[in-house]
Amino acid sequence: MVWRGQERDTSLPPLSDRCSVLVGRAQLANVLAERAFRPSDALPFPGGDAVGCELAREATYWALSALREHSLAGAQSPAADSPAAPVLTALPTLWSETPPEVLDRAAEGSEPAQRVRDELDKSFADFAELSPERQAATAKRLHAFAARLIAPLAVAQRAQERVWVARAQAVLLVAVLLLGLGLVGKSIKARHDLTRDLAPSASWTASSLYPECACKSPAQSCEECPNFFFHTLEDAQPSVVFDLHSEQAVSAVVIDNRLDCCFERATPLVVQVSSDQKSWKTVAKHEGEFTTWRADFPSERARWVKIYVARKEFLHLSRVRILP
User: Fold this and answer.
1) Nearest one of 118, 138, 141 to 130, comparing CA atoms
2) Digit-coded pLDDT (tens) for 142-153
């Protein structure tokens, strides 16, 4: 199902290197914003919502910078291909240069856009002085606004993901250290796991497919569906099954939830393995909302890997990695 209220531009040309870097910064800041105001584990200190506000503000800045860079790059002639020195533009200027319809679409209306504009004028110190209730509401609103700004660029940026990961690694390490989450080792390991992923060579089958949008197996990204690669109907136990085409060792899965909304649908999420599609063994289960979930378990020999929601619901995921 394509998210109502947001139209997609699926005809964007490839991003320039600079634009891809800016989109990467925006995505990173917005992911860290959500982890700050919606942590999977309790934070060591209070104030996560205020930090989430500031990180979402940063994500908005980089997203508007990327939109400006993409517009300028499209206006240049092919001969003007030599990279110019980066020029950082103030957030109010970026806002004024962005087409109003883009801002209204991201905010879901002109009045909400003005409210977001007013909130973006605040500093991290202003966010910290808000009441806890306003901090939480503002963090979620700015995070959602930034996500909608980023989404149209994510289609083209996804093809350049590996380049972005390499260039954003230093930023990621610094941000993780500042948040005190101690995930440096995990991020390096997660990047290494990309080279061992069994899913790209596997085929997948969903229990049902929503007719408006689905990638074609084995692809897990396509221009038509930038926020998920499959979307089931409301099934009793909606699932996606990966066929590895031969029995192999499986010891972990990394699952990215839908990118733009409806995170609560993928719970409780269950992972099972099988060698004959008749006898299934549960190897992992996750309760609650998540952005990215990694499940490690004792190595199992299996040909099929099944991921399903243990209730009547829709299921839609943006990426699944299967690790030996």
Assistant:
1) 138
2) 999 999 998 888
Least confident of 7-11, 66-70, 143-147, 288-292: 7-11
b/e per residue, 171-201, with b = 16+ CB within 10 A?
Answer: ebeebbeebebebeeeeeebeeeeeebbbee
Tokens 């085929």, residue located: 203
Is pTM, for the whole model, over 0.90? no
* pLDDT tens digits, 173-189: 666 666 654 555 566 66
Adjacent-strand bridge partners of 225? 222
Find where tokens 């930034």 sit: 146
Mean pLDDT of 193-210: 88
- Cα–Cα dist 13/284, whole Å: 40
Evaluate the CA torsion angle 216, 218, 223, 225 in order and state its sign: positive
Fold observed for domain 197-323 = Jelly Rolls (2.60.120)
| Domain residue spans of the chain | 17-191, 197-323
